[in-house]
Amino acid sequence: MDKKLIKEIEQAVGEVKEIKLLPEQGCTSEVRKVITEKGTYLLKSATVLRYREWLQDEAQVLKKLKEEQFELVPKFYGFFEGELTSHLLMSYEDGETLTAALQKATSPSEKEALIQNFGEFIQQLHETKLVHSFKREIDWLDEQLAVAEKYFYKGGTDGNLSLLEKIKANRPDKMDKALIHGDCTTDNVLVVNNKASLFIDVAGMTIGDPRYDIALAIRKFYNDEVLLDAFYEGYKKYKISKEEFDYFNHGLYEFF
Q1: 3-state secondary structure at position 91
Q2: What is the CA radius of gyration of the chain?
Q3: Of 30, 36, 40, 199, whose CB is crowded by the most CB atoms within 10 A?
Q4: What would the pLDDT profile of 107-155 be if each residue is shown by its tens digit?
Q5: Which burial class, exposed, middle or buried, applies to 132 when counting CB atoms under 10 A from its CB (0-12, 13-18, 19+)?
């Protein structure tokens, strides 16, 4: 790791004692544990242009939420850009992903309890008073469709032109906006003592359509009636239709 980056980290959080590359890595970034005289932090680093843009978005979100004293995400400590790499420094948080917790569950009832709590946690997010920093003039879905089109023409998406035209032409009815995660899969929630405690990878957190969060949250167990019922035991705010699920999960999400 270059000396300039270490100096920037030390200016933000104190003298660096140790930096360790973590064994669990995401698809878009390298993740390191940074131990300093003041505490323990997490450093995410990205090199691909699109992923650097996402990392910058995440930094801006975390910075806004820290100012709002929002507690359900890691705390922002700094964003550093080099010529070829971007770095986001945030608090290091204990826990495991909900995906990992579900894999370790030893009984169906334990899985159901985790999924029900997941639903409760998302509802807590969606019922958060609209954060002033995220007030938007552009409609969320308009913006997402524009980004989807950009990504399609740049390449690297699972969606095709036919699907893009379909989701542009067949938008769901409007509904009240909420504070959403924007990539609300079981990979992006940390669990501590079998309770969802933190949202991670929050580059897409904004005021938007809560049905997008619901669709991504239930995508892995949509055809499991027991787990789906458990989710809606926790999330009581709205139950999406099959058409809405398909639009957001099999449609819009294919471009991200």
Answers
A1: strand
A2: 19
A3: 199
A4: 999 999 999 999 999 999 999 987 777 777 789 999 999 999 999 998 8
A5: exposed
| pTM as predicted | 0.92
Mean pLDDT across 43-60: 94
Dihedral angle over CA of 114, 116, 117, 121, nearest 10: 130
Residue bearing tokens 């005021």 = 207
Q: Which residue matches tokens 């035209």?
A: 165
Q: What residue type is 137 in one-letter code?
A: E
Q: Which helix (H) or strand (E) holds 64?
A: helix 49-67
- Mean pLDDT over 23-52 rounds to 90
Residues 99, 191: contact at Cβ < 8 Å? Answer: no
* DSSP string across 116-156: HHHHHHHHHHHTSPPPGGG--SS-HHHHHHHHHHHHHHHS-
How many C-beta atoms surround the C-beta of residue 200 within 10 A? 20
Q: How far is it, in rounded angstroms, from Cα 18 to Cα 36?
A: 7
Alpha helix locations (H) across 135-209? 140-154, 161-169
Q: How many C-beta atoms surround the C-beta of residue 71 within 10 A?
A: 10
User: What span, in angstroms and rounded, lies between the C-alpha atoms of 182 and 141?
Assistant: 11
Tell me the CA distances in angstroms from 178 to 85, 123, 130, one per residue in order.
33, 10, 7
- With beta carbons less than 8 A apart as the criterion, state whether 110 and 171 touch: no
Place of tokens 């507690």: 71
Q: Is 103 exposed, middle or buried (0-12, 13-18, 19+ CB in 10 A)?
A: exposed
State how far the Cα of 87 lies from the Cα of 169, in Å rounded to an integer: 38
The pLDDT assigned to 68 comes to: 87
